[in-house]
Specification:
Two copies of one chain form a homodimer. With about 600 residues, chain A is an alpha+beta fold. Chain A contains 19 helices and nine strands. In chain A, about 55% of the residues lie in helices and about 10% in strands.
């Protein structure tokens, strides 16, 4: 079952809701970006996604990757699709022109990635990992490194990876043991084992640029002693470098992407930036990656929504409780049943709201890098810092819920591989884990992004929500009061949490994930009100009713009445505080 | 990673909280059941579960079933384990003694099934399906059918299936097309295709007794024209009957259980009960099966909880926010982190509360069948009708959440097959679907079990909750007011829903799943208060603190403060009514 690129929704969000044209005009970017160019890029990306990537999604899941004689083979068609991708210039879309990129704003890469991930997330992760390497090298690489490595990444001839995790060290990066020793020629010798390396080896490109976190012999303990080092799979003279694939993991989903154990054995590497400054470079990669993982949640939810919607229209089962809707058929299509609609609308609200939130994050990232002046860049940077854990943490949870609702709409048929929908659940399951689990996002949000900044970005965002609430047209005032109530509660709750956290730091961890989810629902409420206002404005000028716009406004109302109230449960859990968690002794967990 | 049978918790629930000894004494059962006998059964079942079933769980998932030359082969070890099961007399545990059973109450089969399902749900479904067939034949079979088929099912020589679903007909059983025509000798000729038949074929027993829903040529349309027919895989003379396995499904989980397409082609069958009375017989099977599926949710949650708890104690990652807890180690075990505790306690609260709710349902089923007098049986029957959709619908959703939290505790390692935890998520995913989806349970609960009975069983249950609230010891009065508030809100909400449903039947469907979830959390609040009261009473007499009892009371408080508030979100969604769902036109769902 194929995906149809939801270009109407993507363009509505990008151009109408988020005012993309003015946005791109205002940037200090390398290239002018007009509406026609963006439309052309999106249309071409949509063709590539549905023509090349969607057809190899199920086969990639079934066959997975193979490790034969130390070399990973990707599923049938993956290599050929990558060749077309590189030839099409997609790898360099938002790379610097000096090094062969097209110099377009980063947000356009995100929007294109939306299309690719809907069609085939496992494939999309290969170039997706390259984006992280590209961003790190653009920000922190030397001129020589850019000429050597960045050019190849931007042309798509080579791909990249992020090598962080080790067997004993995941979230706690500071524990890492991989060693890097300076050689006489200014290079480094890297030794150690990295695990869970996505796109860690494959047969799609001539070389792989591993960006490896490692520790120098004299480095300080913890994260302050971490360096980022480039280790190519093949040396620059074409010989094999000291890095080998020890194994590929058998896993729940994303079977088409090779998750590798990489063994580094005296491999030659090149220091990025200063020694011991690796965490800063890592966060450059990581923040972009977190945005993309949030997007993956949305993209998988989109794929599941399309499948379950079309199934709900075709599957005939039982009569509507309010009387037959298609009396000439043996039963009504299940989309007439209220509970099926509840599931479809939940998916629709999370997909469309999620997409708009990711795009908002991507445009904010543009402004943080290319805003007209320093003040704008600084403000955008604060906003982006605040939004990133919400986008990553909340939208992956929402994406997993949506994929599962898709399966539920299919009933028994949803559990069967052939239908294609359960793959989305298995693929989506990793998104709440990698690039920082939901728990890590919650701590980052509440601890670093809210309490440590005295809620600066939150207050600015809440103010924007209040302004929107006060400007809503008369026909949408039913959305205004809930927004105002929400920002009031959000602010008070945060203040109270700040006070409790000063007494007891465990209060932060105890509240963190519920706080993250609360913020996610709040952000989606803002986004949905914004979308409803835009849809309302556009409808006003039209004589024929536009189904898409009517659906937007109705989905906003659905969101406010049936999903936003989930904040009440999170609010209560946050208020319960750390005590119910922390007074429990270790042995009390047992019930054997 | 192995499962340790949680006998302490099982016995606490069965004997201390639910007063199992008095319960069994009070029944009009075939056999006397004392504490010693039950302890012996549980201990032996626990040995069988951890010794025979747990070791073949992962291999069953990896290798799955094979269909070769029309015959299904089960994974290595499945056949041998089944042989031991049959030899051990487990198949006939609660069967009638006249036909070779041991005559013990049905609830003991449920408790034993808890142990088996924790260890290996895919294997447990083979004898699990037999239980459904046994119950249907005991209730509705003729003496000859009992002598022929029931005896073989109770000895374990043969197994059973339930053949309901067809390609075009799942929840809507009335649409089924499988035909049955009377033959001159009083038997029937059955033709048609059934799909999703769990345990539909295998190599573990000599014969399989299919209980097939079919339609006679002159049958009324819909569910009133459905008959239940016994179709054995092999005829009584040993020849092959006209039933063949067309395919086995490739699916998300429960790989060790064969999910079959069965083709019936002029197969010889035997009518159970009167023609066209099949739905009644089906519900006899189905209600028992729904209880067991709810139990599967709990059992998988137990397995996941044990794995994630032991991982959380071993995995060292980051320091406690309130200062190092194990300074001699490179980091603290992750169980010190509040958010990891939140995940573990959520699992613990859902597992232990869920187990107690299933056992309550099972004891209620005992009383419905073997209660001392007719009034007791009728009251128990009403209570059971009310609890069954909650147990099936809510506890499978809770089980899936718990299994997913287990994966989340493992982080990246949770996504890897080798760890064994992601299997529980894939296995659990079917439980919210088969034997009636969560949506079907919601409709059954709100429509048939609550509104159609004017809330009779609900009112009786709410009264029992209020009585418990008023009797709680002083140390637990913090649990009392929430219970009283809950029953008040529950009652008012139900009344209001009843009024709305009279105006518009879609109101029932619109509220149904949120109503089901609300009731589930309410039932668990009752169960947790009851468990806390018992734990408190037992602790009072002890000099040494008992970790298990302390954990019970603390988990009850955790449940009340952090999970029960989820009712607020469901309450708001219920109150939103049908309008946000039903005013949306079909075309409005599109966003392409």
């Amino acid at each position: 079952m194929d995906i149809t690129p939801p270009l109407r929704d993507m363009k509505f969000v990008l151009f109408d809701v988020l005012r993309g044209e003015q946005h791109y005009d205002s940037l200090n970017a390398e290239q002018e970006v007009g509406r026609e160019l963006i439309d052309a890029i999106l249309d071409e990306a949509a063709r590539f996604a549905s023509g090349e990537l969607a057809p190899i999604n199920a086969v990639g899941d079934r066959d997975g990757c193979k490790l034969i004689d130390g070399q990973v083979t990707t599923p049938a068609g993956f290599k050929e699709a990558y060749k077309l991708f590189a030839e099409g210039g997609w790898a360099g879309l938002s790379g610097e022109t000096t090094y062969g990129g097209q110099g377009l704003p980063e947000s356009l890469s995100v929007v294109v990635e939306d299309l690719f991930s809907q069609a085939n997330i496992a494939w999309s992760m290969y170039p997706g990992l390259s984006r992280g390497a590209i961003e790190a090298l653009e920000a922190h690489g030397s001129e020589e490194q850019k000429q050597t490595f960045l050019t190849k990444l931007l042309s798509g001839e080579w791909t990249g990876t992020m090598c962080l995790t080790e067997p004993h060290c995941g979230s706690d990066v500071g524990l890492l043991r991989t060693r890097a020793e300076a050689a006489a020629d200014g290079t480094y010798r890297v030794s150690g084992t990295k695990i869970f390396i996505s796109a860690g080896d494959h047969d799609m490109a001539n070389n792989i640029v591993h960006l490896v976190l490692a520790r120098l012999p004299d480095a300080p303990q913890g994260t302050r002693g971490v360096s980022l080092i480039i280790v190519p799979k093949f040396n620059l003279d074409g010989t094999r470098n000291g890095v080998s694939t020890g194994a590929i993991e058998e896993k729940m989903g994303i079977h088409g992407n090779a998750t590798c154990v990489l063994n580094f054995d005296d491999a030659t590497g090149y220091m990025v930036g200063e020694p011991n400054s690796g965490m800063r470079s890592m966060f450059t990669m990581m923040n972009g990656a977190r945005l993309v993982v949030g997007l993956q949640g949305v993209a998988l939810a989109e794929a599941a929504y399309q499948k379950s919607l079309s199934y709900a229209r075709e599957r005939l089962q039982m009569r509507s409780l309010s009387g037959p809707k298609q009396p000439d058929k043996p039963a009504d299509p299940i989309i007439v049943h209220p509970d099926v609609r509840r599931m479809l609308l939940t998916q629709k609200a999370l997909v469309e709201g999620g997409r708009a939130l990711v795009y908002l994050g991507a445009l904010t990232a543009d402004r943080a890098l290319h805003g007209a002046d320093e003040e704008e860049r600084a403000l955008a940077d604060e906003r982006l810092d605040f939004l990133t854990p919400i986008i990553k943490g909340f939208l992956t949870e929402a994406g997993f819920e949506s994929a599962n609702l898709g399966v539920q709409v299919f009933g028994g048929h949803g559990f069967i591989w052939e239908t294609g929908i359960e793959q989305h659940v298995r693929d989506a399951r990793i998104t709440t884990i990698y690039e920082g689990t939901t728990g890590i996002q919650g701590l980052d949000l509440l601890g670093r992004k809210v309490l440590m900044t005295q809620g600066k970005a939150l207050l600015a965002f809440a103010q924007e929500i209040n302004e929107l609430a006060n400007e809503l047209p008369a026909e949408l005032t039913d959305l205004a009061q809930p927004l105002l109530d929400l920002t009031a509660q959000w602010g008070e709750m945060t203040m109270s949490l700040g006070g409790k956290a000063m007494q007891n730091p465990d209060e932060v961890g105890a509240a963190s994930v519920d706080y993250l989810m609360y913020c996610g629902y709040a952000c989606l409420a803002f986004i949905w009100a914004k979308m409803a206002a835009e849809a309302h404005a556009q409808s006003a000028g039209q004589t024929e009713p536009d189904h898409y716009l009517a659906g937007k406004i109705a989905t906003a109302r659905f969101y406010f009445s049936r999903l936003l109230p989930r904040t009440a449960a999170h609010f209560a859990a946050i208020n319960a505080g750390a005590e119910p968690l922390m007074t429990i002794e270790d042995a009390w967990f047992d019930h054997i």
